[in-house]
Amino acid sequence: MPELPEVQTVVNGIKSKINKHKILRFKKYISKLRYPIQKNLSSKVEGSKVTTVFRKAKYIIINLSNNKSLVIHLGMSGRIIIVKDNKKKFKHTHFSIFFNKNLVLQFIDPRRFGYICITKTVSLERHRFFVNLGVEPLIEKFNDRYLLNVTKNKKSPIKNIIMNQKYIVGVGNIYASEALFLSGINPKNMGCSLTRQDCIKLVKAIKNVLKKSIKLGGSSISDHTMISGKMGYFQNKLQVYGREGLKCRKRTCQSPIIRIVIARRSTFYCTECQK
Ligand SMILES: [Zn+2]
Predict the structure, then answer these.
(1) Residue 221 has pLDDT above 50, yes or no
(2) Cα of 204 to ligand 1 centre, how many Å?
(3) DSSP state, 37?
(4) Backbone angles phi, psi at 217, to 5 degrees
(5) Alpha-carbon torsion 211, 214, 217, 222, what sign?
(6) pLDDT digits (tens, 9 = 90+) for 168-208
(7) Of all helices (H) and strands (E), which one includes residue 14?
(8) In terms of CB atoms within 10 Å, which of 28, 47, 109, 209 comes out highest?
(9) Where are the chain's structural domains?
(10) Span 53-76, pLDDT tens digits
(11) Cβ contact 56:130 at 8 Å
(12) CATH 1.20.810.10 fits domain 144-269
C-alpha cells in the first residue's frame, strides 16, 4: 500500500507535469472504484485549470481554478501515469484526465480500492476524509511536545499510537518500524512509558525516515512517464522492516532482527538496540 512518501512522490511528479494545465475532458471506464465515481464529476472539472497539487495525509489533492478540488486516493494498488498523446490506455486504467498539450493522466488500479471525488476547495478541511485526521508529521506542529501529550496517558503500544491517523497521519507500518529502530524504542512499549527524550528522538526519526524516503522516491521518476505508488529506492535502505533473522545493521550490535505481530501487523525490531 502506498504510504506517505510514495504519495508525496506521486504528488511531486504530477505537479511538475500538470500544474497550470487545463482539463479538457474527464473520462471514467468504470462506475465504481472503492466508492462510486460521482456522475457529474466530468462536468465539474472540464474547462478548469489546475492551480496547485499537494498531498494531505495519503490523499492527492488537485485544486482547480473553479474553486473545486479533486481528491484522489491510491488505495492498495493505485498508480498514476502521465502520458503524452495518449497512445495507449494501460490495463486497469479506470479513469483518465485529458489536459491541454496532449497530456493524459491515467489512474491504474488492479484492486480497485482507490478513489476519486470532487469537493469544494473551501470545505476540504471539513470533508469526511479529513475531518478526523491528526497532524501532518512533516510540519513543525508535530514535535516532542505534541507526541508527549498524545502518548502520556496511553497504555497501548507506541507503534500503534504513531500509526493511528487520529494523532499523526501517514506513518504506515514500514515507517513506524523503521522510526522506532532509529530512535532505539521498543515497539511494544506503552505510550505512557515514553520520556520527553524518547519523544524528541522519535519525532526526529519519523521526520527523517519520511524525508529520506521522499527524496529517494523522487529520484525514481523518469522524464516521460511516471508510474508511482510503489516504494522507491528506499526499500533497499530499510534497517529492520522485512529483515527477520538478519543481523542488526548497527555495527556494534549484529543481533538478529526479530518479527512480532502487534495489532495484526508485522513488526520488526532489534531486542538489543530497542529497549
Ligand atoms: Zn541491534
Answers:
(1) no
(2) 19
(3) P
(4) -60, -40
(5) negative
(6) 998 989 899 999 999 999 999 999 999 999 999 999 999 99
(7) helix 4-18
(8) 209
(9) 4-126, 144-269
(10) 999 999 999 999 999 999 999 988
(11) yes
(12) no
Active-site residues, by number, are 2-3, 58, 265
Cell numbers representing residue 212 in the block: 529520506
Say which residues have a Cβ less than 8 Å from residue 93's Cβ, sequence separation at least 6: 29, 106, 107, 108
What is the amino acid identity at position 155? Answer: K
What is the Å distance from ligand 1's center to 272 Cα?
A: 5
Nearest to 169 by CA among 72, 57, 56: 57
**Dihedral angle over CA of 194, 142, 14, 226, nearest 10:** -20
Angle in degrees, CA 160, 163, 166, rounded to 5: 105
**C-alpha cell recorded at residue 206:** 519519523
Distance from Cα 254 to the centre of ligand 1, integer Å: 6
Rounded CA gap, 221 and 55, in Å?
A: 17
Which alpha helices (DSSP H) does 91-233 contain, by range? 144-151, 158-163, 173-182, 196-218
